Amino acid sequence: MTVSYDNSKIIFDGIKAAGITSISALPETWLGLLLQRAEDDPEISLIQVCKEEEAIGIAAGAYFAGTPHVLLMQNHGFFGAINGIVSLAQLYHVPLCMLVALRGHWGEPYPWHTRGGIVTESVLRALGIPFEYARRPDDVAKQIREAYTFSQSSLSPVALLLTRDLMED
Amino acid sequence: MRRAGCIEMMYPELEDKLVVTIMGACAQELYNLGHRDNFFYLQHAMGLASSIGLGLATHLPRERVIVLDGDGSVLMNLGTFATLARYRPKNLVHVVFDNGSLLSTGGFTSHTTSGITDIAAIARGAGIEHAVGVSDVTAFGEAFVDALDRDDLSVIVAKVEPVGPDHYGMDLQLPENAFRFKRWIAERRRATGAAS
C-alpha cells in the first residue's frame, strides 16, 4: 500500500479551492504528499508544529487575524490536542476546520494504530464535534469546502476524517 | 520584582499591540489596569498563549504581538520555543513571567523554583537568538524596550515573586473577549487598507 499521489493532489487542490491560505500540520505518512505540496506553494502559509495542540493555538491566531486556515493531523494527534480544542476553541467559540487522517480503521495492518482508530468516532461524538468521512476523491473537495463553511457558521471545531479508501492506492 | 509592576510598566506600550495573556493572575493584573479590546485572556488551555501569538504574528506581519506567559504554562508546551525559532516571527515578543509557582492553582512550586530549570536557556537551546533572563525591574524595562526596538523574535524570561492580585473577576465573558478581539483586528485592518 502506498499513499495516493493523485488523491493527495485532489485534497490539496480542494483546500485551495475552498479559499484556504494557511495550514498548520504535524507531518504523518498519509499527509506527507499533501504537505510537500503545501510547502512548495508560495500562496500557502504552512506552519509545522511539534505537537498538535500547538496547532489549535495557531489556528485561533489565524482566525482572529481573518486568515482562512485548516489543520492537518493524524487521529492520534487529535487526541493529544483535546484540551486545546475544548478549552480554547470550544470555550471561546473559535472555529477549527480539522482534516484528520483516520489511522487504525478498516484494513489497518499495524497494531499500534488500532486502539486510536477504534475510539476516534466515539471521542468526536463525546466532544460534540461534527464530523464526516471522506472516502471518495470525487467528493472530497466539496466536503472540505463544506467543513470549512460549517466551522465558520457554527463557530465550532469540525472534523473531516480522511479514510484509507481515499489516502491509499 | 513583581509581575504586576512589570505589566504596569509595559501597559502604555500595549495600547496599539495585540496582547495574549495566560490565565489567572497574569490576566487579572493586566485587566485591572484597564481592559482594551486588543487584549485576549487565555483563561484555560495552558501552554497555548504563545501558539496563538505565533498564529497572529504570522498572519498579521504589520502588527506587533506581545505574549504574556508564565513558567507553569510554558512548561506545558516547550515545543513552542522550537516552533517559534523555526518560523521566527519578527513581530512577536514572548514574555515569560517565571514566579516558580503554579500560583493560580494553589501555589505549588513549579520545576523552575529550585533554579535548576532555566527557561531562557531552553528558549536559546531551541534556537531563539534573542532570549534573555532578567530579575530586576530596570533590566526588565530595558529588555522590553530592546525587544520593541528589535525587528526580530524576542523572548524575555522575568523572574518574579509568586504573588498575585488580591481579587479575581472580570466583567467580560470569554466568547465576548474573543469576538471583540477579532473585531478590533478586523477594524484595524480596514482602517489601514487591509494591507496588514
For the report, how would you describe the main beta sheet of chain A?
A: 6 strands, parallel
Q: What is the spatial order of strands in the main beta sheet of chain A?
A: 2-1-3-4-6-5
Work out the count of structural domains of chain A.
Answer: 1
Shape of chain B: globular
Low-confidence stretches of chain B: none
Could you name the CATH homologous superfamily of chain B? Thiamin diphosphate (ThDP)-binding fold, Pyr/PP domains
Rg from alpha-carbon coordinates of chain A = 14 Å
Beta percentage of chain B is 15-25%
Helical stretch count of chain A? Answer: 8
How can the largest sheet of chain B be summarized? 6 strands, parallel
The pair of chains with the biggest contact is: A-B, 32 and 36 residues
Give the helix proportion of chain A (percent range): 40-55%
CATH architecture of chain B: 3-Layer(aba) Sandwich
Structure explained in plain terms:
The complex is a heterodimer of chains A (169) and B (196). Helices cover 54% and strands 18% of the residues of chain A. A six-stranded parallel beta sheet of chain A has the order 2-1-3-4-6-5, sandwiched between helices. By secondary structure, chain A is an alpha/beta fold. The radius of gyration of chain A is 14 Å and the shape is globular. Chain A is built from eight helices and six strands. In chain A, α7 (137-154) links the parallel β5 (131-134) and β6 (157-162). By secondary structure, chain B is α/β, with parallel strands linked by helices. Chain B has a single domain, classed as Rossmann fold. Chain B is globular and about 50 Å long. Chain B starts with a helix and ends in a 5-residue tail after the last helix. The mean pLDDT of chain B is 94. Chain A binds chain B through residues 22, 24, 45, 47-51, 53-67, 69, 83-84, 87-88, 91-94, and chain B through 40, 42-45, 47-60, 77, 79-80, 82-83, 86-87, 174-175, 177-179, 181-182, 185-186, 189.
